[in-house]
Automatic annotation (TrEMBL):
It is a multi-pass membrane protein. Residues 14-427 form the Major facilitator superfamily (MFS) profile domain. This is MFS family permease. One of its GO terms (molecular function) is transmembrane transporter activity. Keywords: Cell membrane, Membrane, Transmembrane, Transmembrane helix, Transport.
Length: 459
């Protein structure tokens, strides 16, 4: 079998494994968001709290997972850059599954009092650590195994796990919410968390058959790994890490669309409020749209010579579409809400498809896992985790959705500016090697030559 056929086969296998693994990880992470919007305010906090405060506090516990994500990026980035991507991804999958399963078994406030929200927060932190190490490794196992010039396209396999996992989580709660409300709050929601253990087994079977990407194998053979990747990453690439974090707020608008919007749109104090199942159905349709259109973002970025132009035209429509989504929901008309949410989904999902590959190109192999994980998780900690709580506070304080709509549009502005700056520093032609990859190739060639000279027989 030729090398090109082997490469293509290995790339497909890595892409599929990346997709399945991230689907499972994101399912576990997103069911917590759905439960925070619908259940946790009732199950894990006193019923005597003022209206909306229980939901706000449940969003704060969700934020704890995001705060922990950079720690996961550092821990698993360290091991992924030193010992390889495959083993690290197996550990993140098991950790996430265990934490989610335990949430499903956790007694509520009525049973163990204040210990309930404390333990819930601790398990959410474990989820955050797991997903903090998962995303970077999944992107790399796909992009580093890709044929030459197709790393951005193959990195989109990992990104497809997010809408799929979110769709599975939304679908699970859509079905479970059909139960009588007391039963759903008492035990129904737990089924979604307990079921994650079955998905973990499937993911492990697939991931254990993976091969380590060739560039990582070379780095280990040539002893090109660094002792402490996080120090190396911050020392030499701090600007890229910050630009990468700044490029990612647009990705986090999904928490405005799903977590916050679900709590807001199903609040029965509105005369236009939706039923829980009805609005989860709207969210599910938007996720199907995301799943379908998202890969086109990676295709466009791979085929357009200047990725800066592609990013500009992908992101700019979100400036208007995200604010319009909230006003579409507020009409109380299901089909107008579907149209508004589906339209707002297109720009940020296409952007999400390509940004993982763009970030992977920014860093050399020996700190790549750490670098892209830190970029993603720093943004997640500061933006994604706080988004539902900040949006809820904005709405509760002003009694109008306008500030939240402006917040969503501002994410797109920040992402556009930082992504363009990142591409300017790293290179903007997807089919060519990035600046980091060119420099790494030169360094590896020099190290190989030095190794050969030392091994050469003496006259």
């Amino acid at each position: 079998m030729s090398d090109s056929v082997n490469t293509a086969k290995r790339a497909r296998k890595a892409g599929i494994a990346s997709y399945v693994g991230t689907t499972i990880e994101w399912y576990d992470f997103y069911i917590y968001g759905a439960a925070s919007a619908l259940v946790f305010g009732h199950a894990f906090f006193p019923e005597s709290l003022p209206a909306g405060i229980g939901t706000l506090l449940s969003f704060v516990t969700m934020w704890a997972g995001f705060i922990a994500r950079p720690l996961g990026g550092i821990i698993f980035g360290h091991f992924g850059d030193k010992y390889g991507r495959k083993k690290t991804l197996v550990v993140t999958l098991v950790l996430m599954g265990a934490a989610s399963f335990l949430v499903g078994l956790l007694p509520g406030y009525a049973t163990i009092g204040v210990a309930a929200p404390i333990l819930l927060t601790c398990l959410r932190v474990l989820q955050g650590i797991a997903v903090g190490g998962e995303w970077g490794g999944s992107v790399l196992i796909a992009s580093e195994s890709a044929p030459k010039g197709k790393s951005i396209l193959y990195s989109a396999f990992a990104q497809q796990g997010s809408p799929t996992g979110n769709l599975l989580a939304t679908g699970a709660f859509f079905v479970l919410a059909m139960m009588p409300t007391p039963d759903f709050i008492l035990y129904g929601w737990r089924i979604a968390f307990l079921a994650s253990i079955l998905l973990i087994v499937i993911g492990l079977v697939i991931r254990l058959k993976l091969e380590e990407p060739e560039n990582m194998q070379k780095a280990r053979r040539k002893d090109a790994v660094v002792k402490v990747p996080v120090i190396e990453a911050f020392k030499k690439h701090w600007a890229l890490i910050l630009l990468g974090a700044g490029a990612l707020p647009l990705v986090q608008v999904t928490y405005l669309k799903t977590t916050f919007a679900t709590a807001w749109a199903t609040d029965e104090s509105h005369d236009w409020a939706y039923g829980t199942s009805s609005f989860l159905g709207i969210v599910a349709i938007a996720l199907v749209v995301q799943f379908i259109v998202q890969p086109f973002g990676a295709v466009i970025l791979s085929r357009v010579r200047d990725m800066r132009k592609a990013i500009f035209w992908i992101v700019v429509p979100e400036f208007a579409l995200m604010p319009l989504m909230f006003f579409a929901i507020q009409t109380g008309n299901v089909w107008i809400a579907v149209l508004g949410m589906a339209a707002a989904t297109v720009p940020h999902s296409m952007f999400y498809a390509g940004i993982g590959g763009i970030l992977a190109r920014a860093f050399p192999t020996n700190v790549r896992y750490t670098g892209i994980s830190l970029s993603y998780q720093l943004c997640s900690m500061t933006v994604a985790g706080g988004t539902p709580a900040i949006a809820q506070w904005m709405y509760t304080s002003t009694d109008t959705i306008m500030p939240v709509a402006i917040l969503g549009a501002s994410y797109a502005v920040v992402s556009l500016v930082c992504t363009l700056a990142l591409l300017q520093k790293t290179g903007w032609v997807a089919s060519e090697e990035s600046n980091a990859e060119k420099a790494e190739k030169i360094e590896l060639a020099e190290a190989t030559a030095e190794f050969d000279r030392e091994d050469a027989p003496r006259p």
